[in-house]
Amino acid sequence: MAISFKGAHFPKDVILFAVFFYVRYSVSYRDLEEIMRERGVFVDHTTLNRWVTRYSGAIAEAARRRKGPCDRSWRMGETYVKVKGTWVYLYRAVDKHGRTPDFMLSKRRNKAAATKFFARALEVNGLPRKIVIDKSGANTAGIKTINKMLRNFGCPIPTEMVRRKYLNNIIEQDHRFIKRRIRPMLGFTSFASAASALAGIELINIIR
């Protein structure tokens, strides 16, 4: 997946540095504007916002398809993120070693969203042997839907579903780094900007 910088008024390296700095460290756009100015780059915080929205998600998507394999035992859950005063849902999964199979921001927390997330995760990671979830009915229905689809395609062994909240502590703990990172960002103004910034944050976590 090629990322085009056509039409950008700053060098690619400057844009990538700014995007990386924003998703890696706990800064606001105004903080980043000041950091860039100290390095001799005069760029408005609204332009920085556009860079993150345009490039962060694209970079994360390209990297997502090239990341290394994960263990076949997953822990899955979702956490809340506020966008323009409304709560949306960040679906996330980690394997038993803490590596991230996938993530997805959704406006809804229901069977359709859970099914979409599982299908997306399977696309780049293959079939997990086991998924541990809490007692969410939507996630239960999502896994059952995926298993039914797999049976229809001739897959004889379904993914085992384990519904034990205490076994899912690893994903609950992993949510915390998202909360720490987005707190200084002072909220998201659109779903697109939230999805792009969160994708960049997740990518940095995967790289780490």
From TrEMBL:
Involved in the transposition of the insertion sequence. Residues 65-208 form the Integrase catalytic domain. The lineage of its organism: Bacteria, Pseudomonadati, Pseudomonadota, Alphaproteobacteria, Rhodobacterales. PANTHER family: BLL1675 PROTEIN. InterPro entries: DDE_dom, Integrase_cat-core, IS_Transposase, RNaseH-like_sf, RNaseH_sf, Transpos_IS6. It comes from Ruegeria haliotis. The chain crosses the membrane at residues 185-207. Keywords: DNA recombination, DNA-binding, Membrane, Transmembrane, Transmembrane helix, Transposition. It holds the Pfam family DDE_Tnp_IS240. Gene3D superfamilies: Ribonuclease H-like superfamily/Ribonuclease H (3.30.420.10). This is IS6 family transposase.
